Amino acid sequence: MAKCNSVFLLGSLCSDVDFRILPKSGVSYAKYQLAINRDKGKGTDYPWVCSFGKQAESDAVHLRKSSQCLVRGRIQTREFKQPLHCPNCQHEWEKESVATEVVADNVEYLNNCYFPEQEEKEVN
């Protein structure tokens, strides 16, 4: 059986992009959530998408809440420890958690996206 981990998602952003520079590596990182309608109006899914490097920088510039985009990427599952604390006794502990997200390799910006270069042309 061939190995294939590839997805295409067409959806609209639920909120603005969370853009950061990762402290240990200095790599650009962007994270956002898409609203994707299911076939025949049978609900909506809300997967998280993350991108790195130049793609993350481009996503942070062009995408805003309600921007529509087409994402080509791969599914990634990662484990992490989530810090928790009790508001009453202030006891702290870590909970093992799992996140499944799409790592974007390429993003096409469609409707309601921001293009600063077009704005500059309109001003001149």
TrEMBL record:
Domain of life (superkingdom): Bacteria
Origin species: Neobacillus paridis
GO MF assignments: DNA binding
One protein family per Pfam: SSB
Protein's recorded name: Single-stranded DNA-binding protein
This protein's record includes keyword DNA-binding: yes
Keywords in alphabetical order: DNA-binding
Record-linked Gene3D superfamilies: Nucleic acid-binding proteins
Keyword DNA-binding applies: yes
